[in-house]
């Protein structure tokens, strides 16, 4: 691990100032010399692997937890401070009762030890990456733009089918983010240019020609709150995760579903796909295939086909298409049978 400076911020303003102070060029946040750290469950790994080389780490755990470590219900939704731990959110009574897809997406992530430490703000910003990114001897456009992508013709079983480019096919690994994009969440940030609100659906970007750019955030911009609006679909919701083993493993495929039904007819539906895309992925095509129709095995299958119509498989990950479709179908039919 390379030498670095450690600072502990006591306010969002302090954190932004400390992280932004080292920026001397127009860099994406992941390559900026100043980086935020909270749970530290990813950052320290990358530093040990020498794939991230921050000059300064700004610890945000000293920021007021009475404000930024709280979960607050309000008329129309629920609001999470960025310092709320994953384990706190998954066990919160209102989250479990009214937003089960959120609780399940957190319960199925990582290990209990990690969830006890990791914050919600840090979790949604975990890097889109693969084994070639983590091993510095392999070419990786995300780590070193222009060096090439070893995964294209390498072992790409875990890689993305949706939102890929000829520069990068790494899949976004998070679970919580799939629930957030399905439920139209909003993030609030504080940065060098002040405060702003960003639709969660707009926070992450596809790799395109710049896979080293993963979000629309600026260097030194800190997520402060995540807000999820309530709706007729939030109680009847679930997260289904298919993985190689039952604990501490990324999704091979996953689906976040939220349903509003009139009898068997779909009034509204939200569908997000995990493990198969380069960013948190909401499938509007699958939703459109279901709205206004009865939810049956046949219509669920049509929605699953629509979800993967644009998939671009590589040599070793084509199996994710039929598996992903079955994941969507199962999630839809199991959610239909939930008590709302």
Q: Which of globular, elongated, flat, extended, rod-shaped describes the shape? A: globular
> How many individual domains?
3
Mean pLDDT, all residues: 96
Question: How many strands, what sense, and barrel or not for the largest sheet?
Answer: 5 strands, antiparallel
The rounded distance between the terminal residues' Cα atoms is 50 Å
So, CATH architecture of the largest domain?
2-Layer Sandwich
- Discrete helix count: 14
Number of strands: 12
Q: Which structural category fits the helices and strands?
A: alpha+beta
The H/E string reads EHEHEHEEHHHHHHHEEHEEEEEHHH
CATH topology of the largest domain: Uridine Diphospho-n-acetylenolpyruvylglucosamine Reductase, domain 3
**Helix share, percent:** 25-40%
Strand content: 15-25%
Cα-atom radius of gyration: 20 Å
- Uncertain ranges: none
Given this structure, which CATH class of the largest domain is correct? Alpha Beta
* Strands in their spatial order, largest beta sheet: 4-5-8-6-7
Write the layout of secondary structure elements.
Blueprint: E1 5-8, H1 12-20, E2 34-37, H2 43-49, E3 56-59, H3 65-68, E4 71-74, E5 77-81, H4 86-90, H5 93-98, H6 100-107, H7 112-117, H8 120-123, H9 131-134, H10 176-182, E6 186-191, E7 194-199, H11 200-203, E8 222-229, E9 237-242, E10 253-262, E11 265-274, E12 281-282, H12 284-290, H13 297-307, H14 320-336
Parallel strand pairs: 1-3, 2-3
Antiparallel strand pairs: 4-5, 5-8, 6-7, 6-8, 9-10, 10-11, 11-12
């Amino acid at each position: 691990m390379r030498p670095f400076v450690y600072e502990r911020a006591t306010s969002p303003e302090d954190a932004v100032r400390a992280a932004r102070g080292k920026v001397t060029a127009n860099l994406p946040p992941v390559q900026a010399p100043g980086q935020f750290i909270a749970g530290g469950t990813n950052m320290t790994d990358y530093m040990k692997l020498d794939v991230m080389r921050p000059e300064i780490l700004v610890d945000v755990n000293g920021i007021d937890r009475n404000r930024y470590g709280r979960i607050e219900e309000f008329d129309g939704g629920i609001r999470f401070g960025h310092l709320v731990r994953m384990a706190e959110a998954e066990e919160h009574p209102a989250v479990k009762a009214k937003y089960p897809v959120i609780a399940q997406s957190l319960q199925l992530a990582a290990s209990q030890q990690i969830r006890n430490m990791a914050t919600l703000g840090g979790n949604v910003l975990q890097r889109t990456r693969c084994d070639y990114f983590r091993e510095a001897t392999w070419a990786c456009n995300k780590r070193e733009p222009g060096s090439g992508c070893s995964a294209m013709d390498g072992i790409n079983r875990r890689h993305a089918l949706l939102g890929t480019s000829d520069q990068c096919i790494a899949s976004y690994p998070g679970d919580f983010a799939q629930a957030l994009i399905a439920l139209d969440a909003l993030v609030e940030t504080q940065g060098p240019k002040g405060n702003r609100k960003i639709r969660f659906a707009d926070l992450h970007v596809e790799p395109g020609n710049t896979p080293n750019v993963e979000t629309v955030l600026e260097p030194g911009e800190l997520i402060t709150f995540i807000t999820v609006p309530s709706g007729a679909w939030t109680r009847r919701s679930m997260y289904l995760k298919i993985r190689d083993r039952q604990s501490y493993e990324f999704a091979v495929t996953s689906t976040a579903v939220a349903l509003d039904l009139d009898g068997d007819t779909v009034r509204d539906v939200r569908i997000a796909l995990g493990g198969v895309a380069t960013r948190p992925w909401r499938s509007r095509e699958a939703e459109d295939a279901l709205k206004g129709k009865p939810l049956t095995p046949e219509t669920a299958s049509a929605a699953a086909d629509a979800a993967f119509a644009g998939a671009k498989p590589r040599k070793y990950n084509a199996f994710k298409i039929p598996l992903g479709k079955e994941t969507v179908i199962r999630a839809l039919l199991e959610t239909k049978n939930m008590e709302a």
